[in-house]
Design a protein that fits this description.
homotrimer, 338 residues, 10-stranded parallel beta sheet
Chain lengths: 338, 338, 338
């Protein structure tokens, strides 16, 4: 069992108002915490909850430490300290070392001694798995795919042929990396497939959510930079490049050959059309459609505000008349000036 | 072969104008039905089709029974009766009892005698499967996951560690329950992962569509109420709570820590941002973005109406000038009043 | 190694200004090409790149052939010729003939002699696989599913019971065909499932992207025409019909019983509501919502333009007042006329 002293030491935070020997049974929100648990205060919106919490200890900034009567761990960045504390309380089972007897590994694959390969995995020819790599049950690696040190693929992930994954990456269940991009040329009789000759290259410390798809490049590669985090059910099309530490929330769709800078945050269900250039430090609000390149850092949006359907519909009808409405306004202005 | 009398009896509907011995070969729409088939009439928009159908029998409300010349099954709720009838005509193969020889089951898992486990399933340590549970081919259960009586998981489902499923649930192929929520704290050098310490808890009679993702809670759990139905490719983020019998159509994205009441219907491709409270009996129209908590039951929307692109673009340009247009209007009003 | 002469011959294009013996090591964009590589010029926007490219040969239309100093392959349709050339340079490993020892095939399945079945596949009872069919690792075929000559399913695909696939189709990893449609009837106590009695029928030369879902029909089938191409993470609901050679980009959601004509192009993240009729040769721009049937070929859109969030918000607020703004305008017009 962890004590408050252990946590203080491991997070490098000073402890005040409580015994180092106090056992801490878990981590919880201010409102959900029970005695014996540790919580954190990172948003002054919840100041009242800080006073009311039943937690035995709270991670808190110096300036708010007086608002809580129990033990405090003083942190200049309580949310970050909470993130680090969360790893101390993660008791989920870790993958078992070794190759499960039901897995199939091509004899030409090169595996570090300590890889962990789950039930019913299929590791193709010429794959390369570095030290500490783990594959969840049912994961499939195409020929020649390469995975760096300590990267973890959960259950039922697909890496298609030749996909490259850096070190300390995490790819969640159902994700598909290296599927064929959506490239076709029209011919009289229908669509002719453009074979996708590139691959997908993930940097280091990249996180990919469940059922997300990243297509291989048509010519050249699809490239995901170091430290990029991508949520569930995201589509990344062929030849997209994403800069370091950019975050992409669930259900976004990034079309082909678009380049996104580093340090961007793309909220959920955003669409970005193809062949755009987006600079560093751009933020896009939820469900916006980005149709032009962005050259200036900042926040961008599209769409309308929500409303009660009956009211909204009246406004939506007017939207369809907006150009005509504008022209009537202009006419009035001319009349006024006469 | 089912007869009209069988159907009448099993659905508890009175039969009129036809022989109980009449064999019924199948169920069809009014327009698609062939002689020998049963249809239903539930939308007066199709009244003409009721007169014209070649069906041998129709499920119909008393007031419309005279509009069809053949046999009728009288129902106060014909659409509901059709739903119940559909189960009588479902001849798809049912999973075979027993554990397939290619499946892998951890010796510490607790399985009822009559579970059905398909080829290449992987059942982790300490899992618990109640009576009548069936797992389709390639389904993976993480350590400690629990599935209630009679629940059915189709092929290639993933339950991550510790996920709990009630009784009589149905989870379709490719769904992932219990993936890590998208929680990270920013640090100078990039994102620090927040370990997701909660799990996913499904109530009873919950239906989950293909390739849908439900993330585990960060602190506390993600909770899906009894009788909730969720379509394909839906994203449910960490710590979302969904009330009883709420229906969520395909491709919706519900962001973290949002609570949705019971009896809501969320149409397809809707986005709901995080940390909102939505009361019972709220309805959201397709592809709307919900950005604020909803305290009053009713129907809500966002977006614009569709149009021919050339016309739409002219209006969309005016949208981008709308605040300026408004101010010009106000100026004119002032001039008028002078 | 391919020579320029080989390529000229296989694509049926005349070679000018270069030696037929010249070995060609790969295909690249004008800007990315290195000496020894072949490129193509299909968009006059990149005319400067044609002059500057380091490629040893370029596929180009007659009228632009003079703009490049090296070898040219003259094509009336350079983009189409590039598509055809791409197949010559695709050196990804092809599936190995035979049934992998870890696959499970029901003894009642009918397999052509030359099918290729990967590791941990599960082929259900009464399935039928024609000559040249290949299944990637972990693919699951439900009872009675049928796959035509030369069709390729990648890793971890699911065909549910009775799904039919034509010849020369390609289905990518994680796709689910034949999942239950989202059909329920409301009852006092909750939702009653409508059993989905139809199936999914794919024509010939259909391409389906990764993690895409196509639901089986409720009554009658979901039908995808010959030559249709569908990208990743697309939702096709029950009883949708899609006409020949229609293209649907990633993350679209097509609701139930909608019919889409042939030769349509639906851009990414588009929603189309249920029970609509859309004629041939309709084009929909990205992230539009189609709420009405379309009877006239052309291009259709919805939504607003993007903007910097601060400016956009001011306009979005005015959108919510649009009907009132319109009425104030009308009032002014009346005053003006007086």
């Amino acid at each position: 069992v962890l004590t408050l002293g252990d946590i203080s030491q491991q997070l490098g935070l000073s402890l005040r108002g409580g015994a180092a020997e106090l056992p801490i049974s878990g981590l919880a929100t201010l409102r959900g915490a029970k005695p014996g648990e540790l919580s954190f205060f990172s948003n002054r919106h919840y100041l009242k909850q800080l006073g009311d919490t039943r937690a035995s200890a709270v991670i808190v900034a110096e300036e708010f430490a007086g608002e809580f009567s129990g033990a405090v761990l003083i942190s200049p960045t309580p949310y970050l300290s909470y993130a680090k504390a969360s790893s101390l309380f993660d008791d989920r089972p870790v993958p078992v070392a070794g190759i499960h007897p039901t897995a199939w590994v091509d004899p030409t694959a090169r595996l570090a001694d300590d890889v962990k390969i789950g039930p019913h995995c299929a590791v193709g020819p010429e794959c390369s798995l570095d030290s500490g790599v783990s594959l969840g049950a049912g994961t499939v690696l195409g020929a020649g795919s390469r995975i760096g040190r300590g990267s973890r693929l959960d259950a039922r992930v697909t890496l298609c042929d030749g996909v490259e994954v850096g070190f300390a990456c995490h790819i969640q269940s159902g994700a598909v990396l290296g599927s064929d991009g959506f490239g076709y040329a029209p011919e009289e009789s229908g669509w002719v497939k453009i074979h996708q000759l590139g691959t997908v290259k993930l940097g280091d410390r990249v996180h990919i959510g469940a059922n997300t798809c990243i297509d291989r490049g048509a010519l050249g590669d699809t490239v995901i930079g170091n430290g990029v985090i991508i949520d569930n059910l995201v589509q990344i099309a062929h030849n997209v490049h994403i800069g370091e530490n950019t975050a992409i929330a669930a259900c976004c769709a990034i079309a082909g050959s678009t380049t996104i800078g580093s340090g961007c945050t793309i909220a959920g269900a955003v669409g970005i059309i193809g062949h755009l250039q987006i600079v560093d430090n751009v933020h896009v609000t939820a469900m916006s459609l980005i149709t032009h390149s962005i050259t200036v850092p900042g926040s961008y949006s599209s769409g309308t505000q929500m409303g009660e359907t009956h009211e909204w519909r009246k406004n939506a009808v007017r939207f369809s008349q907006l150009d005509k409405i504008y022209k009537r306004l202009r006419e009035l202005e001319r009349a006024e000036r006469r």
